[in-house]
Amino acid sequence: MTQGWKITVIVLAAIGVVSTPVIWLLHSPNAGELTGASIQATIGIGGFVWALLQSPANRLDDTAIRSGQARARRGGRAVTGIRRPQGQGNGSAKAATTGNATADGDGSSAVSGIDYS
Q1: What is the model's pTM?
Q2: pLDDT surpassing 70 at residue 58
Q3: Please, are residues 59 and 91 in contact by the beta-carbon 8 Å criterion?
Q4: Which of 86, 83, 92 minimizes the C-alpha distance to 62?
Q5: Is the dihedral of CA 61, 65, 68, 69 positive or negative?
Q6: Does residue 108 carry a pLDDT above 80?
Q7: Across residues 75-95, what is the average pLDDT?
Q8: CB neighbours of 36 closer than 8 A, spacing ≥ 6?
Q9: CB atoms inside a 10 Å sphere around CB 43
Q10: CB 82 within 8 A of CB 93
Q11: Cα angle vertex 98, ends 94, 101, to 5°?
């Protein structure tokens, strides 16, 4: 679960739990209103607890340190660090003291660090 969704669920659950006593304070509830308010409070508390227990979704932390040299030729790709196509992944990426990356020839590419392409 992403952090944004987690916060949304917690806020909505809190609103559900807080609004339940308001229904009781406005007027004396009949059996149906009391049942509905009890169900509302139970679902709100359940949603709150569930959201708190969720871990971050697919969080991956990538690290590349002191990687070796890489060379690309004839349209190849050389990466001496981390490759995340189209920025995939939602964890941190750290590249330090990466090796030399060289590219020779048309269409070749070399990255020394983090490649988001």
Answers
A1: 0.43
A2: no
A3: yes
A4: 92
A5: positive
A6: yes
A7: 79
A8: none
A9: 14
A10: yes
A11: 125
3-state helix/strand/coil string of the chain: CCHHHHHHHHHHHHHHHHHHHHHHHHCCCCHHHHHHHHHHHHHHHHHHHHHHHCCCCCCCCEEEECCCCEEEECCCEEECCEECHHHCCCCCEEEECCCCEEEECCCCEEECCEECC
Residue that has been written with the tokens 């983090």 in this structure: 114
Which tokens in the block code for residue 13? 């659950």
Residue indicated by tokens 């359940």: 46
Q: Is residue 12 pLDDT above 80, yes or no?
A: yes
Residue 57 near residue 2, CB atoms below 8 Å: yes
Contact 63, 30 (CB under 8 A): no
How many degrees, rounded to 5, is the angle at CA 103 between CA 97 and CA 108? 125
81, 65 contact by CB (below 8 A): no
